[in-house]
Automatic annotation (TrEMBL):
<keyword id="KW-0030">Aminoacyl-tRNA synthetase</keyword>
<dbReference type="InterPro" id="IPR020058">
    <property type="entry name" value="Glu/Gln-tRNA-synth_Ib_cat-dom"/>
</dbReference>
<keyword id="KW-0862">Zinc</keyword>
<dbReference type="Pfam" id="PF00749">
    <property type="entry name" value="tRNA-synt_1c"/>
</dbReference>
<dbReference type="InterPro" id="IPR014729">
    <property type="entry name" value="Rossmann-like_a/b/a_fold"/>
</dbReference>
<dbReference type="GO" id="GO:0006424">
    <property type="term" value="P:glutamyl-tRNA aminoacylation"/>
</dbReference>
<protein>
    <submittedName>
        <fullName>tRNA glutamyl-Q(34) synthetase GluQRS</fullName>
        <ecNumber>6.1.1.-</ecNumber>
    </submittedName>
</protein>
<dbReference type="InterPro" id="IPR000924">
    <property type="entry name" value="Glu/Gln-tRNA-synth"/>
</dbReference>
<keyword id="KW-0547">Nucleotide-binding</keyword>
<feature type="domain" description="Glutamyl/glutaminyl-tRNA synthetase class Ib catalytic">
    <location>
        <begin position="4"/>
        <end position="276"/>
    </location>
</feature>
<dbReference type="InterPro" id="IPR049940">
    <property type="entry name" value="GluQ/Sye"/>
</dbReference>
<comment type="similarity">
    <text>Belongs to the class-I aminoacyl-tRNA synthetase family.</text>
</comment>
<dbReference type="GO" id="GO:0004818">
    <property type="term" value="F:glutamate-tRNA ligase activity"/>
</dbReference>
<keyword id="KW-0067">ATP-binding</keyword>
<keyword id="KW-0436">Ligase</keyword>
<dbReference type="InterPro" id="IPR001412">
    <property type="entry name" value="aa-tRNA-synth_I_CS"/>
</dbReference>
<keyword id="KW-0479">Metal-binding</keyword>
Amino acid sequence: MSFRTRFAPSPTGPLHLGHAFSALLAYDMAMAADGVFLLRIEDIDQSRARPEWEAQIYDDLHWLGIDWPEPVMRQSERQDAYDAALDRLWAEGLLYPCTCSRADIAAATSAPQEGTPLLGPDGIVYPGTCREKSDRLGSRPRGMTLRLDMRKAVAGVSDLRFTETGTEPAAVTVSSAELITQVGDAVLARRDMGTSYHLSVVLDDAAQDISHVVRGADLFEATQIHVLLQRLLGLPTPIYHHHRLIRDENGKRLAKRDDARAISLYRSEGLTPDEIRSKLSI
Ligand code: GLU
């Protein structure tokens, strides 16, 4: 199997040490396997994506010694593909519109008789408020949040599995019961975006013919949604490699706002790419 992987940053802030680790690891794995490393710009959230962050991503990655074939895939140019997949799932009756706000969901799950709200890969597991009351007839509504009806989605699906080679190597089985109770009706199209992270990442990995997804362990739980979507949309399931997360000295995971660990800052202080690698033990 040829090895094709990608690094898929969102241009919503500076690349920090955690991104450098992810990109270098994926790049090194691709080079060691005589494979291909691709870059993808995950800019579906146009309210937060900025051209200057995108330019900084290219610059920082080149400085780290990473290169990639052009043209780079940008999610903001892929809405037709996302629409086609949403149309298909809608026609199969697997989606429904949802009008709940975050506050509605919090209120619906915080009633004392509900117990502690269950947390899934996207936060509180959706309690299903709109599932039965929404109209699923006619053509797919635009400009609305669309959720996957998880019960229906898993009904005809068996043996969902994927191979994990990262932090805890395993053949992972995705259980339908857990998808229903612990993931629930995931959002596949956000009102303001017309797509979602889950849908776009699955379609783009397939479009880029990705054989190995290398990314942080924080996305391990989301992988079950991705594997289900691959099955529903007739797409191949890549091999997944979820790597350890880079933490700050307090053990907290680095986030975009951790500008103190921005690659650009280390660069301006005169660190070399090799010193970044040794900081990351890579
Ligand atoms: N765009 C995601 C991020 O910035 C990465 C998605 C992925 O690798 O699947 O964290």
